[in-house]
Amino acid sequence: MKPSARSSPLPRRLAGLLACGLLGGPGARADDPLCRAPEPDPRLQELLQADPDDPRIDITSDHGELGRTGDATLTGNVRIRTGQRLLVADEAEVDATARSARLKGNVEYLDPTLHVRGRGGDFGEGSGTFEGAEFEIPDRAVRGAAESVRLRDQSILDLEGVRYTACPAGREDWLLSADRISINQKTRIGTGRGVRLEFMDVPILYAPWLTFPVGDQRKSGLLFPSIGNSNKNGAQVTVPYYWNLAPNYDLTLTSRYYFSKGLRLDPEFRYLTERSRGTLTAEYLYHDRDYDEARGVFDLEHVTHLQPLTRFLVDAAYATDTSYFEDFGVGFEGTSVTFLNQLAEARKDTQHWSFIGRVQNYQVLDQGLTDDEEPYSRLPQALVTGHWQDLGGGLRASLRAEAVSFQSDVRDDGARLDVEPAFGWRAETYGIHVEATAAWRATAYSLTEAAEGVDDSPTRSLPVLSAGTGFTLERPAGSKGQRLQTLEPRVMYLYVPYRDQEDLPVFDTGLPDFNLVQLFRTNRYVGADRVGDANQLNVGVTSRLLDASDGRQFLSATLGQSFYFEDPRVVLPDEPPRERATSDLIAEMDVTAFKNWNARFAYQWNPDESRTEYSDVRIQYRPASDRVINAAYRYRNDLVDQFDVSAAWPITRAWRGYGRWVYSLQEDKTLDRFIGLEYSSCCWALRLVTRRYLSSRTGDIDTSIGLQLELKGLSSVGNDTDAFLRDAIRGYSALPPEPRS
Known about the structure:
By secondary structure, this protein is mainly β.
């Protein structure tokens, strides 16, 4: 049977909308004439200048008859104003005793928060009734029509048989209809009964009772549900509920039902007090049908400022099982969580001292880690640092001390005390500086389970001596001298005598990436279990191109390398010894010289092996906040070899596309790939994203679809899509969010 042309209004509207956007037609964006805000009513400016508490009544009309008691019958351009309220009508009968008026013909009511047009009605002190009325709330771009409109208590608007939208006239893409709606203009909360929500003429929601915000104020209530699907977890339905418990704390409880796994509750509690702030979040799956048990994750972030320079913080997360993030994380970054941090810390700062007390544990999620790779817990750790920058004559002093107890379920426990006092001197003149530092580092251990014949209280002490200099040269650059070029060489000699450290344990020490910061550190290791011996000269040179007028940087380029007078002998377990005359050569460059373009380049070259150890190239083109293209390449010898491209770009005035592709050349596979399309008008937006990503350490692939419908001026249906886009696309910036209901 041939379908009737009248049987599918939604496809026709969407087809017209698609053609309109893709072919470059009027797309109802902010620059569309339909979306432009109307010119402000000049009468409103006049009302805003009046005293809202002025009890006097000002009445004007073309003709009028005045009775003995003060009653009046007015015709032609009737204007009745009291305080900041204005009534306009064709005719009016004024009752002076009751301070009321019966209005006839075309009627208008205007105040700073409400504009009503009707076909007659009654108006009294602080109240009024209008028949067959249209209304607007100017500062929220909200409008509608009702069979009857009643204003009571000067701020509450009761509507009967109402149609309500934030879309401009002529484009009512979404429409809220209700038997009755009451809008409190003071609290900016609307309450509807018999509510029906239509989008593109298709009903998408019915509720016998519903509350919603008419402004930016937070409001307790049921948020709109969303629907999603992924290969791993199947279809799901999400229903959030928001509690505005108090001005300084709230709770959002999201009920998420997986058809393949069961019900999951996701509460988020936020709080802010005079001294504290924090967020407590959780995901709790009551009964996972695949595991036959409850599963979840809990996370607390808390900070309390006891005094201006005293604080206490907690940053702790816990998962019920090691596979949770692989099952419920999104993207290869979210599914490859190695461990969860569990930290509590107290800190006190004074003019010269800092005191830190800390307990820190790690929940290991990656079962592929060996025992030696699992991190130790610090139960507890105490750190004290002191700094005296100006002792006279360029002298300065510092003290750093740490005491920590390391505990582990799979490795030997122990405690460590590390102390390092230091004295330094620095002189500067005419862009040249010279400095020297002498420190003594002493470390002692107490090992609880040392093997037989092994010292359970090993110690190490040694001096750390360094001296260096640097200077800055400047010259004009550019045809008119509008640029300034600098040359900034720097050298540092470092001497640390060799101490045999093979018998010392390794609790928290590693070899960091070699870069410009690491080049001028006095210890090539991070952590106190190893102090690298050194007899070397560290050399670096930086050149910058600056704007001569304001100092803005256009380009920065740096080269650096260490020259060894003796081969370093201290190593970590499994670290090969170094028998070479120089370190790797490092190069870094940042470019912002070209409009809308920026680039960063980092490179590490091994001259002995004639190979690249590390490279990182990033290029971004961002001509506007909603237009960005990124390209990146990352390489680390034998570990990482991948490229990453992403973009977000308007296709037409109404359409925008975005996507990302992360590909591993080493593994010859895609790690993450998504593509999205967005249509945005002045009163609604629809975003669709499909994603395919590595979802487990064993190489499993998952595919998911995210859909977000935003009804501007009312609500957002789903809010996860935009959050992940901001994280995935560097420089991505969505349109300013509308109030959430």
